[in-house]
């Protein structure tokens, strides 16, 4: 007996029984007939190589049943998806249910390295191409692709939940999320950064502020970003050259954004709240350097980083005396944490000029330009050296 003959016999003997059984169980006539027909088709495909089974009817019923199970499982999944789509709210969800916040808390999980958190946030939350992120981190696209893959694998292997944490866990995770958001903002605020990064950071921080309205550090970060971002249009002149704060055209500042940021200022107590108050001092008509120096004194107690100590030295230099600033700067550089940092040389140049030694200040500005991190920054530093030369 040939295989087609064997299949035909099995069909005559078992087809109706298979169809009836499936109808009894599923109540679906079309499904039962389709699955029985598919079982016969599979038999014609498999039996020439595998041989006709001892019990062709049982074999056909097994294949038909499995096919029905597959169809019903897919249908069940589709129904659930359809139900979810039908229930999908068209109004903005509460912050805790916002998918973007869920995503950023997942991307910023402490199980991931800080750099991986930032990269994953940029890729998945901000939607930036991997190549653009690789350029921002000064690595190849292939390297960044591997980092992102490892981060996603880590999330899967660690079973990191896709949700905004609640209760104590929300507070515990907050510092990491704020850190990533501020890094994201600075990627857009840097001289050659993409402003879209800063805009996205502000949007996400606004969402976080809605979720945690009583958290002063969230308000502080939002205020800080708004006040700094308000000056984005004035940071370059008509020729595209970077302009330091003192030389910016204040009519090009976004004063509505400044007002919003200032209105959000919490008491000056946390890392971001203190920085926000410092930023707010810089956009007032008259800069109160003594107050800024006092705020830095408090900030350095919270974040004793080399950069904060550097900025504190500059503030004291302008708020009190150049000699005080230079002494604090020397102390900040003593441990080598600012070696090769162009802003440390620029700060020394500023304070040296303030002390009256313009020739030395010119040398320092030129040295800072030599190690600047972008051509735009180097040009800005050289212009300051040229200005001092003309004044000498």
Distance between the termini: 110 Å
State the order of secondary-structure elements, H for helix, E for strand.
HHHHHHHHHHHHHHHHHH
**Major sheet details:** none
Structural class given helices, strands, pairing? mainly alpha
| Coarse shape | elongated
Radius of gyration: 33 Å
Mean of the pLDDT scores? 86
Strand content: under 5%
How helical, in percent, are the residues? over 70%
Number of strands: 0
Low-pLDDT parts are none
Total helical segments: 18
Oligomeric organization of the protein chains: single chain
Task: Explain the overall architecture.
- It is built from 18 helices and no strands.
- The mean pLDDT is 86.
- The N and C termini lie far apart (110 Å).
- Helix 1 (3-26) runs antiparallel to helix 2.
- The radius of gyration is 33 Å and the shape is elongated.
- It is an all-alpha fold and 392 residues long.
- The chain has helices at residues 3-26, 29-50, 56-87, 99-107, 114-125, 130-137, 141-158, 168-189, 195-211, 216-229, 255-264, 271-282, 289-302, 306-319, 322-333, 342-354, 358-370, 375-391.
Question: Mind sketching the topology for me?
Answer:
Elements: H1 3-26, H2 29-50, H3 56-87, H4 99-107, H5 114-125, H6 130-137, H7 141-158, H8 168-189, H9 195-211, H10 216-229, H11 255-264, H12 271-282, H13 289-302, H14 306-319, H15 322-333, H16 342-354, H17 358-370, H18 375-391
Helix pairs in contact: 1-2, 1-3, 2-3, 4-5, 5-7, 5-8, 6-7, 8-9, 8-10, 9-10, 10-11, 10-12, 12-13, 13-14, 14-15, 14-16, 15-16, 16-17, 17-18
Overview features:
392 residues, elongated, 18 helices
């Amino acid at each position: 007996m040939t295989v087609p003959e064997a299949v035909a016999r099995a069909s005559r003997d078992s087809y109706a029984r298979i169809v009836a059984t499936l109808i009894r169980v599923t109540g679906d006539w079309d499904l039962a007939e389709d699955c029985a027909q598919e079982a016969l088709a599979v038999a014609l495909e498999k039996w020439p190589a595998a041989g006709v089974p001892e019990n062709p009817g049982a074999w056909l019923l097994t294949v038909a049943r499995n096919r029905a199970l597959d169809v019903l499982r897919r249908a069940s999944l589709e129904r659930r998806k359809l139900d979810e789509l039908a229930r999908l709210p068209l109004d903005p969800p509460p912050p805790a249910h916002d998918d973007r916040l869920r995503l950023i808390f997942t991307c910023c999980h402490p199980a991931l390295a800080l750099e991986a958190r930032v990269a994953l946030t940029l890729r998945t939350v901000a939607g930036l191409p991997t190549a653009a992120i690789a350029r921002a981190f000064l690595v190849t696209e292939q390297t960044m692709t591997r980092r992102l893959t490892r981060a996603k694998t880590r999330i899967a292997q660690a079973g990191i939940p896709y949700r905004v944490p609640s209760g104590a866990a929300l507070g515990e995770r907050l510092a990491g999320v704020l850190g990533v958001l501020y890094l994201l903002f600075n990627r857009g605020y840097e001289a050659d950064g993409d402003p879209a990064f800063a805009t996205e950071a502000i949007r996400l921080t606004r969402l976080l502020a809605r979720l945690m309205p009583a958290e002063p550090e969230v308000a502080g970060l939002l205020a800080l970003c708004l006040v700094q971002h308000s000056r984005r249009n004035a940071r370059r002149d008509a020729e595209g050259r970077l302009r330091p704060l003192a030389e910016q055209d204040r009519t090009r500042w976004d004063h509505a954004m400044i007002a919003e940021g200032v209105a959000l200022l919490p008491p000056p107590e946390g890392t971001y709240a203190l920085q926000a108050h410092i930023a707010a001092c810089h956009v007032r008509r008259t800069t109160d350097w003594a107050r800024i120096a006092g705020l830095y004194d408090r900030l350095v107690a919270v974040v004793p980083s080399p950069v904060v100590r550097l900025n504190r030295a500059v503030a004291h230099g302008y708020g009190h005396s150049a000699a005080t600033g230079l002494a604090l700067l020397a102390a900040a550089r003593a441990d080598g944490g600012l070696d090769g940092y162009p802003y440390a040389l620029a700060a020394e140049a500023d304070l040296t000029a303030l002390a009256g030694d313009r020739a030395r200040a010119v040398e320092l500005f030129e040295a800072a330009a030599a190690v600047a991190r972008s051509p735009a920054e180097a040009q800005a530093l050289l212009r300051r050296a040229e200005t001092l030369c003309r004044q000498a």
